[in-house]
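Q: What residues go here?
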C-alpha cells in the first residue's frame, strides 16, 4: 500500500471526472467525493479564474517557490539583494488569498490590482481587530 502512496495538491486540481472503480476499505466513503471536498473548501470549481499574479517576495521567503512553483509558467527574477519578483499564472481562489495573507510580512501583491485591494482589505480588517482590543 505504501509503495503506491502518492501526495497530490488537491487545491490545484482544476478539472476532475468520476470513474466506476471501487474505493479501498481503508478510505472513508464520503471523504474524497467532489461534493465533500468542495464543502470543505478544498476545491473551488466555478470560481477558478486564472490571473497573472506578480509578487514582490523577500529573498529567503522565496526559496520554497523554486521547489514548489505556483505554476508551470512561474518566473522568479532578482530585484536586489533583498527582494525577488515572482510572476505566475494562477487560479484566483480563497486559498490563494489565504496564502497571500499568511505571507503578508514577507511579500507584496503587485498585480493584479483587484487582488492587491482584497489582500489589503483583509489585512486592514485584522489590524482593526488588534487596534480595538
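A:
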Amino acid at each position: 500500500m505504501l509503495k503506491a502512496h502518492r501526495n497530490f495538491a488537491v487545491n490545484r486540481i482544476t478539472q476532475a471526472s468520476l470513474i466506476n472503480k471501487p474505493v479501498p476499505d481503508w478510505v472513508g466513503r464520503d471523504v474524497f467525493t467532489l461534493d465533500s471536498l468542495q464543502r470543505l473548501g478544498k476545491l473551488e470549481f466555478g470560481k477558478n479564474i486564472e490571473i497573472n499574479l506578480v509578487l514582490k517576495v523577500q529573498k529567503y521567503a522565496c526559496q520554497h517557490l523554486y521547489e514548489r512553483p505556483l505554476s508551470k509558467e512561474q518566473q522568479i527574477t532578482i530585484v536586489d539583494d533583498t527582494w525577488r519578483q515572482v510572476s505566475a499564472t494562477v487560479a484566483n481562489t480563497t486559498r490563494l488569498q489565504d496564502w497571500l495573507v499568511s505571507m503578508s510580512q514577507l511579500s507584496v501583491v503587485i498585480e493584479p490590482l483587484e487582488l492587491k485591494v482584497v489582500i489589503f482589505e483583509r489585512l486592514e480588517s485584522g489590524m482593526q481587530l488588534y487596534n480595538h482590543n
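A: Context that may help when evaluating the design: The CA atoms of residues 127 and 133 lie 10 Å apart. The chain is about 30% helix and 20% strand.
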